[in-house]
Amino acid sequence: MIKEVTYLEKLQTDRWRTKREEILIRDSRRCRSCGKPNNLEVHHRQYHINKITGQKVDPWSYSNRYLITLCSSCHSIGHNQFKIPFFKI
């Protein structure tokens, strides 16, 4: 039996690290909300679900327009204030 890779495990892969770095460079390594250069994370503005499998699309597969650099504080605040939309694709 093949073990299913979790979404969190996918965020540890080289493919995600490469995509993450691309977004950090695009956003000048600063939080797009408060401008801080520390504790940066890349946030998915929306999540995509494969309408055939019902699983989340791989995190590195998103168009760059759906990704944004946020510091951990702004990222946390955003998740607490807003529900991230899910779309079946």
Question: Whole-Å distance between the termini?
Answer: 27 Å
Runs in which pLDDT lies below 50 for 5 or more consecutive residues are none
Radius of gyration: 14 Å
Shape: globular
In N-to-C order, the SSE pattern is HHEEEHE
Number of helices: 3
Work out the helicity level. Answer: 25-40%
> Which strand order do you get reading across the main beta sheet?
1-3
Largest sheet: 2 strands, antiparallel
The number of strands is 4
Number of domains: 1
> What portion of residues belong to β-strands?
15-25%
**Rounded mean pLDDT score:** 94
Structural class: alpha+beta
Characterise this structure:
The chain starts with 6 loop residues before the first helix and ends with a strand. The protein has one domain. With 89 residues, it is of the alpha+beta class. 30% of the residues lie in helices and 18% in strands. It has a two-stranded antiparallel sheet. A two-stranded parallel ribbon has the order 2-4.
Secondary structure elements and their pairing?
Elements: H1 7-10, H2 14-26, E1 40-44, E2 47-49, E3 67-71, H3 72-81, E4 86-88
Parallel strand pairs: 2-4
Antiparallel strand pairs: 1-3
